Amino acid sequence: MKVLITGGAGYIGSAISYAFSDKGHQAVIIDSADITDELNIPGCFFYHGDISDKALLAKIFEEHKDIELVIHCAEKGSVFDSVYNPYEYYSTNVVQTMELFKNLRDLGLRKIIFASSAAVYDNVPGYMVTEHSPIKPRSPFGRSKYITEMILKDFCDAYDMKCITLRYFNPIGADPQGRCGKSYLSGNIISGLVKVVNNQETCFIISGDDWGTRDGTCVRDYIHIWDVAMANVLAAENFDEAFPRAGKEYSDYLSLNIGSGVDVTVREFIMAFENITGEKIPVKIGPRRKGDISGSYANIQLAKRTINWEPKFVVENAIIDYISWLEKTE
User: Fold this and answer.
1) pLDDT tens-digit readout, 18-75
2) CATH match for 2-175+222-259+296-312 among 3.40.50.720, 3.40.50.2000, 2.40.150.20, 3.40.47.10
């Protein structure tokens, strides 16, 4: 199988690209970053440019007529940053993405896997969300994802397209083989804790301890980046079968939760980090961040049933793999 991966040089995109390569598939990567010197993925092809550049897409499809589907993970991806820079998020995540989908349709590509986010969900009692849980994104990032989901659904209804939307929860960690990762990710809890260990920060700031959860800190679903990558591989391999497996109401559009299925508070994550590293992390309670919710974690039964996916790693694996990757790249 050959797939087009937008944003394939990014944190999530590079892991997806390696996962496809490991499974014997080929990936055609388009990214606005200078990627040719950063990645060396067997069986992959690299194009530098904008995802909404129709001429570049036409060139790609002329040179790779056997592309079967697109995995769209190019994005701006920080909840916190989006609150202060909403224009960039709507411009990239909505406007450019809509042009991408139109161009793909014009070029004859009808199958899409879209990287969305759990940031689209509202708070629910008990914090576990299914794909039918109430939607209420609290940040420009979350709203940009949900707007794009609605656009995609309309495209599927009108233009004979099909889409599987994967709603990622909180990706963390690095490739277990140490081939890719990111040294710093804005808003990523491991990055913040590593900065404290490396004396780049004096303490880790917890954004509020009055959230009404079991220890007052936010509940999150931390999912290993490699589990996210494999969810994309399995969504591609099971694309046509996923819709009938989901039920009669899913003919051309399907949303799936991609999380660990385990709820972990911020304090519990810090304790897990301390247990693995042997480092005591000084913490300070700060104000709540705009755009945050008290928490959510994933019910992943629909993903298990439709694309035969389930997570293989736990939080501790992600911490170990991330620290190993940092040590390897230093």
Assistant:
1) 999 999 999 999 998 876 555 678 889 999 999 999 999 999 999 999 999 999 999 9
2) 3.40.50.720
- Non-local (6+) Cβ contacts of 134 within 8 A are 121, 122, 124
Q: Could you tell me the CA-to-CA distances from 182 to 136, 185, 201 in Å, in that order?
A: 30, 7, 18
- Residue 251: DSSP 8-state: S
State whether residue 147 is helix, strand or coil: helix
Alpha helices (H) along 91-238: 97-106, 140-159, 189-197, 225-237
Closest CA to 270 of 229, 312, 311, 216: 216
- Spatial CA neighbour of 60 closest among 44, 41, 75, 73: 44
**How many other C-beta atoms lie within 10 A of the C-beta of residue 150?**
10
- 3-state SS, residue 246: helix
Helix (H) or strand (E) holding 70: strand 67-72
CB-based contacts of 317: which residues, under 8 Å, 6+ apart? 173, 176, 224
Is residue 206 scored above 90 in pLDDT? yes
- pTM listed for this prediction: 0.95
250-272 burial string, b = 16+ CB within 10 Å, else e? beebbbbbbbbbbbbbbbbbbeb
Evaluated on CA atoms 104, 130, 239, 115, the torsion sign reads positive
